[in-house]
Amino acid sequence: MADDPVSADVFRALANENRLRVLEWLKDPRAHFPPQVDGDLVEDGVCGLFLAQKLGVSQPTASVHLKVLTDAGLLTATRIKQWTFYRRDERAIRAVKTAIGRSL
């Protein structure tokens, strides 16, 4: 994420219903996803495959959504073996909320 927490990338990321769902589900991943063989749901994040399945989209489509959220700084991605796990970047999300509140 750029120095400005409310960059165009952030607004682009938030302008899609599926991406908003992902952010909502990742607030409490244990409530929305089954246990994973690799990676802790909270510490490491949720496997991109689980996110694709829950969204009801193909893995490549989910990957695009997850890349947009990651590029905007709202998610962090962690590789474990051949999988990528995603979790919210709470610090960045707080900064976005604060900046939007100040600017509106």
Could you explain the architecture of this structure?
There is one protein chain. The chain is α+β, with helices and mostly antiparallel strands and 104 residues long. It has a single domain (8-99), classed as Winged helix-like DNA-binding domain superfamily/Winged helix DNA-binding domain (Arc Repressor Mutant, subunit A), CATH 1.10.10. 53% of the residues lie in helices and 13% in strands. It has 6 helices and 3 strands, in the order H-H-H-E-H-H-E-E-H. The chain has helices at 8-14, 17-25, 29-32, 48-55, 59-71, 90-103; strands spanning 46-47, 75-80, 83-88. It has a 3-stranded antiparallel beta sheet. The radius of gyration is 13 Å and the shape is globular. The mean pLDDT is 91.
